[in-house]
Amino acid sequence: MAGRLVIIGAGQAGFALAAKLRALKDERPITLLGSEPCLPYQRPPLSKKYLLGEMSFDRLLFRPQAWYEENNVDIRLSTPVEAIDREARTVRLFDGSAITYDTLVFATGATPRRLPSQIGGDLDGVYTARDKADADRLADEMKAGRRLLIVGGGYIGLEAAAVARKLGLDVTLIEMADRVLARVAAKETADAMRAIHQAEGVVIRENTGLKRLIGEDGRVKAAELSDGSVIDVDLVIAGIGVVPNDRIAAEAGIETANGILVDVREQSSDPNVYAVGDCAVFDWKGQKIRLESVQNAVDQAEAAAGNLAGVSLPYRPKPWFWSDQYDVKLQIAGFNLGYDETVVRPGAREGSLSVWYFAKGEFIAVDAINDAKAYVAGKKLLDLGRTPDRAAIADPSFDLKTLIA
Question: Rounded to an integer, what distance in angstroms lies between the CA atom of residue 372 and that of residue 378?
Answer without folding.
Answer: 10
